[in-house]
């Protein structure tokens, strides 16, 4: 069984930041991710609010963080999902699809996953015109008409990105106004090929082998209509990946977010959490990085100077 000072579960912005600071603190650090290092920020077409970068693609920012973390000496295992945890004792046991590890401390930075709208046809056509990542799948629909569902920052950045690829971007939002940042809303307003349908929802996604149309309902009038589209991009937010943590005794709130204190501590000694999986109210790259740093330094204090935490 391999022994580590700290094992970080999840290699997104929070996990990578935690890895950087854990290694710099002299901790033997392992980062595990069920996919690839970088996290959901890799899916962002453009990041314009991360200090130091006026504009950078999410993929490039994620790569810079990952490279920095590896260069300092953190070991990152891609495609190694954690399957079971034992966190109650002083020694933390982490079982994965490949091996079993022992650690003195564990940091959850498992992030979140894309929410579904839950309508007929959504799962049937996932990967066949239904997408949750504009930068991943947008290029497949160059010159086509696409539909974007949502009104927050994630939806706004996707709308802007797709407007440079698709012939037309139709936006469906169940409310009467965007919730996104004003600068993003202003940018959308300047796009000639973007059309917004307010107070409207998708009732069904239809097609044969690929998406061909959607059924819409106007929440004001109650009328339904059909709209021909080549793709549907669902951008309505995310839900926390906390099932693993909850199963081994880590407390979560009613929405599934891991409860933390100001030092990123959970209810279990030596177990910390950072990023979008936590109850921290702001879900941004900058806050995830800050939480990851705090979690790493608190993990160091727990391992090397436990009296510091009293």
Question: How would you portray this structure in words?
Answer:
With 310 residues, this protein is α/β, with parallel strands linked by helices. Helix content is 24%, strand content 27%. It has 7 helices and 17 strands. The strands form 4 sheets. Strands 1, 2, 3, 4, 5, 6 and 17 form a 7-stranded mixed β-sheet that branches. The two termini are 31 Å apart. The mean pLDDT is 95.
Provide tags for this entry:
310 residues; alpha/beta; 7-stranded mixed beta sheet
The main sheet comes to: 7 strands, mixed
Helix content: 10-25%
The run of helices and strands is EHEHEEEEEEHEHEHEEEEEEHEH
**What is the CA-atom radius of gyration, in angstroms?**
21 Å
Unreliable residue runs:
none
Number of helices: 7
Structural class: alpha/beta
N-to-C CA distance: 31 Å
Number of strands: 17
**What is the global morphology?**
elongated
Strand content: 25-35%
Instruction: Provide mean pLDDT, rounded.
Output: 95
Short summary of the structure?
The chain is α/β, with parallel strands linked by helices and 310 residues long. The protein has helices at residues 13-24, 58-72, 134-137, 153-163, 182-189, 243-247, 285-304, and strands at 2-9, 29-32, 75-77, 82-86, 92-96, 100-108, 112-114, 130-131, 145-149, 168-172, 194-197, 200-207, 211-218, 224-228, 231-234, 238-240, 271-273.
